[in-house]
Amino acid sequence: MARRLPSPPKAGLLNGLRFGTDTIRFLEAIQARFDDGTSISIPGRPPLVILTGPDLVAEALDRPDDFTRIPARGAVAMIAENGLVQSEGDLWSQQRSIVAPSFGGRQVTAYANTTGERIESRATQWAEIGRQRTDLHREMTSLTVRVASEILLGEDIGKASADQFHEWMRIAGEEFEFGLETVLPEWVPTPTSPAFREAATGIRELSEGLIERRRTSLAAGERTDASDMLTALLRAEGDPDVDFPTNQIRDEVATFLIAGHETTALSLSYTLCLLSWYPEARRRVREEATAALGDGPPTRDDLSELEYTKRTYQEALRLYPPAWAVFRRVNGPVKLGGYTIEDGAAVIVPLWSIHRDARYFDEPDAFDPDRWARRDPNAVAAYRPFASGPHACIGRGLALSGATLVLARLVRDFDVDVPDDALDDLRLTPTLRPAAGISATIDPLD
Ligand code: HEM
Questions:
Q1: For the segment 1-16, what is each residue's pLDDT rounded down to a tens digit?
Q2: Into which family does the record put it (predicted)?
Q3: Which of ligand 1's atoms lies nearest the C-alpha of 267?
Q4: What is the number of alpha carbons within 13 Å of residue 410 lying toward its C-beta?
Q5: 413: how many CB neighbours lie within 10 A of its CB?
Q6: What is the pTM of this model?
């Protein structure tokens, strides 16, 4: 007979408060205590279900009708209401099938090669500047947002807009930061700040500008063979079988501008921090990159020679998953494994704490890229930085190939060093963000 998931010993409200104020430590304590998961009652809110076991996680993520996305409301909807990251059901499947071809093998090659060219010119600039102190996270954001806009939307937004975007994302991060309001009763309104409203307007207007320019160039018969995502969306507009809600294309552009760069920028920053702290791993990446890369920009063809660099990135995504959790709402009541879960329950899949659980990873706190050469089945089953199931990340191939080339190119020619406490103050927004950037020294090798 199905039973309910167990609850932690303290009263629901206390657990809720700890969840809202000391989220990471709370999730780690829950992870250590419960094999499958827990259900926590919070007064005035639906129960909070935290899934800790990889089998239950896989099953929940495979059943999007029972474990649905949480609809975009309030501040999130001010940026995009119906993009692929937010939508569900028929709209989601229509949108996913329109954009999916833009993420196939040809696009991955184009993305990897464009990333290679962009990192080559960034590395040339860094070499000209010489030793410098800079915000590593800003550098990585400006690189990835420009590559994402060029590849997905057919236009590089340029340095000024990329810097502006970084600032908008910082403001949005503050707005979306996890805190007490996470556990306040649902009727308590949470107002948005003027700075956030301005950032949301800026992102929408930037998206509209990109759409208008691409629409005009398509109408003028320019670049009609383009296979980028925005072109696919604009072509679909004329298809009688396609039904776009108002602002759908703008929502997708804003969504992809964000989803297409932020997590990748964070993951690159975190990997470079780890390599600064683990000199032997950095030495091995450098040795591999020196043997694999030629004189010009790195390309997709170099990837097969960069196995250790790939493992390094994979391991950094385990320890610092930029999407630190996946969120769902139960459309039920439903059965999951041997458990019944209440209708309306908020479900959290805490990738951060699952990825650091000693039941699945030997020496879970160690940065050990070679664990991925050993392919321990427990580790493989528990590792989900891109989620899984129908909503699994559509940009996974792009991120893996682009990031590997960036890391190889930078580590070959530069020491990027950060202080030991660079990642001590991480903030939980929908992504895991450094509170105040990452101050790094970039030193060209002789
Ligand atoms: C290291 C980089 C990345 C990480 C860690 C990451 C992580 C994730 C995760 C965990 C999800 C699942 C969210 C959920 O189920 O609620 C997701 C979905 C998604 N990601 Fe990524 N992502 C990355 C890069 C990218 C890139 C480069 C793009 C676009 C070019 C992208 C676009 C998306 C989209 C559109 C979805 C929603 C897919 C759907 O529901 O059909 N991501 N990503």
A1: 679 999 988 766 777 7
A2: Belongs to the cytochrome P450 family.
A3: 1
A4: 30
A5: 17
A6: 0.95
